[in-house]
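Let's practice the habit of predicting before peeking. Look at the sequence and jot down your guess about where helices and strands might fall. Then scroll down.
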Amino acid sequence: MNIRKIAKGQKEHYGEIYATAKGSYDLYCLFIEKSLKTLLSGGKIGFICSNQFLLTDYGGYLRAVLVSYNIDQILDFRDSGVFLAVVNYPCIIITTKKENLRELPSNKIKCVRVTEPKKELLKDIKQHLADVDYFEKSYAVFDFPQGELNDGLWTLMPEAERVIFSRIVKIADSKFAEMTEDIFVGTQTSKDDIYLVFVMQDLGEDLVRIKPQRGDEEFIIEKKILKPLLKGKDITKWSLNWSGHYLIFPYKDEDKTILMDEDELKRDYPHTWGYLLHNKIALESRENGKMKERSDWYGYIYPKNHEKFEQTKMMTQLLSTKNRFSFDKEGIYYFIAVGGDCITLGDTYKDEYLYFLGLLNSSVLEFYLKHISPVHEGGFYLYIKQYLEALPIRYPLDKESEKIKDRIIEDVKIVIEKLKFEQRIKNFSEEYVQEYQNKGEEFKQLSISFNSDHKELEPLIEEDTGGDGYNVVISKKEAPIYVDSKVKADYVVSALKDKRAKKDEKLQLLVPKSDAVVETILKKLEEDKTKVKSPSIADLEAEINELVYKLYGLNEEDVQVIEDFLRRF
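Done guessing? Here is the structure:
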């Protein structure tokens, strides 16, 4: 049970009598501390509890207590679902009280690290618990020296991994915390269904038609009050794939970001004010009526870091199965608290974002982070300030490593450029027509409606029965799309192919009236497809990893251990 569910007076009482009653602790920490105090010399006790104390801040107080006892066994079941009825992260820990504390550093803890579920798992583990080392697909048995444990994170791992982990720390010049200016989370509206919207149509004169992220009703508001917003899924490795969400942002900058008052909103943003009034009851009802009868009822309940979003930054998902760091060079994106973390570098390193992006997305630092961050259901790890700041960073200080750094930067540049081309191709024909729109080229707008869901469109071209054009056929359930030339049919196919479509969805597609322009656009599309082929992004990522391995002084055997680990975790 977390302390948030405990009465204030009871918490204060616990704080007076338990060393572990500090921070955002869980009650099991107090139970373990109390039980350990009852042990006589030679007494032994075991617990089935959460494994979160191993790698969390609050667990440090319990870890400080436990190291004064002989730790016989730690069985970490991680997210394997050993208790199938509930999501849990169980751990079994067995300790013995010793009179001579000087013996403790030489103790070898028998550890078990479970990777995945297995039938009769506990019975199988019991058969191999006496083995010095035992490794199989579902779990590993190994010894860990108690002398390496203190109140810091308990990164329990087999010896081969421990040697590499230590080598990475030793060769690193500093922790990431020393090179960052800030690592911060997004804002919190407490009513995303109202504040997060899609723009359905630009009406001109700074007005847009919007639709909330949930619901079908559309509204008109002022464009200037919108900020492009990223959700967690939009933050991918290397690149940001914005899904089109906007944040209604009723704030302004005056040294720091403050909420606009009612008169200002009525005067400068009357349509937005009308939208907020339409949702007043829902906004006032947030968190059990927290905003009721308040003059700032339309503001966010927890406005955070508003002045920090519009700057160059790196971003990562809050929970992820692997390292996925992206770069917002222009500093245009906002995000919400559950979306992820933002990283800005210190003044000395402001020009080094691409180098750090290469390191953060490397196998070396993913290997390291997955040993210090607690795992959650589905193999998701926490990418939060506490663990990001602890990453060991190798910053080149000699000519040879400086050359490696330059090569990493060059490869990262190419990866980002290729991903831009991939995104441009995926979104065909949006970016391709902009140049010709600016030149005043004439277009015909095709309105395409879908009568059913399509996971992946596979349009075909057929000659029109009248003999004077072509039909693009999606399926028997959909109306064919008529165009007057073969090249335009190819253009429509390129725009639709492999796209997803939902029933009743409407797609607007601009097609140049000139066949010559269509041919030029399709030629550019083919050129872009060629650019992303070789070297592939996978090849470039492999090269970046090789460079980072070299930078951290890791040999082939070390690389094999890291890559074997990442295949399993």
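How did you do? The chain has 19 helices and 28 strands.
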